[in-house]
Amino acid sequence: GTPLFPFGHGLSYTSFALALRRPNGTDVAVEDPQSPLEVVAAVRNTGPVPGDEVVMVFWEKVWVPDGVGRGVQWPLKQLMAFHRVTVGPGEEKEVPLDLELEELAVTDARGTKAVLPGTYRVLVGRGSHIEAEFRLTIPGLPTVVMHNALGP
């Protein structure tokens, strides 16, 4: 059925705003898929009382080269990282998130789990509210994370 509330929905006695500090720009190219990507979000409490907010990072596939990713059931959107932060009224806090690109790995029909080259959309938001995004490009060949991921 249809969900009553979107993923990450929550109520608060205060309000928040989010801005993406890093990476700079809307297009990011990865040199080494085995190194984490630093994302920094700034969360500002725009309300009258202290409160907690959860910064969430999701990914979506945009494009992969022909012949790459055959037999993969791509998720529509997948949670990649999250961090809860307490922010006082009028205060702003930077929330660092080191994104392990292994979180982009998908498993094919043979059970090989790999990070595939291509372009991905990275979405940063507060629960169900996406407030910033950038495109992430991973060049080269697939980076195998695990063989026989479906086996015993």
Automatic annotation (TrEMBL):
Q: What are the entry keywords?
A: Hydrolase
**What EC number(s) does this enzyme carry?**
3.2.1.21
Q: Which superkingdom does the taxonomy of this entry point to?
A: Eukaryota
- Which molecular function GO terms apply here? beta-glucosidase activity
Q: Which reaction does it catalyse?
A: Hydrolysis of terminal, non-reducing beta-D-glucosyl residues with release of beta-D-glucose
Q: Which residues form the Fibronectin type III-like domain?
A: 53-128
- One Pfam family from the UniProt entry? Fn3-like
- Provide the top EC class: hydrolase
Q: Which family does it belong to?
A: Belongs to the glycosyl hydrolase 3 family.
**What name has this protein been given in UniProt?**
beta-glucosidase
Organism of provenance: Eutreptiella gymnastica
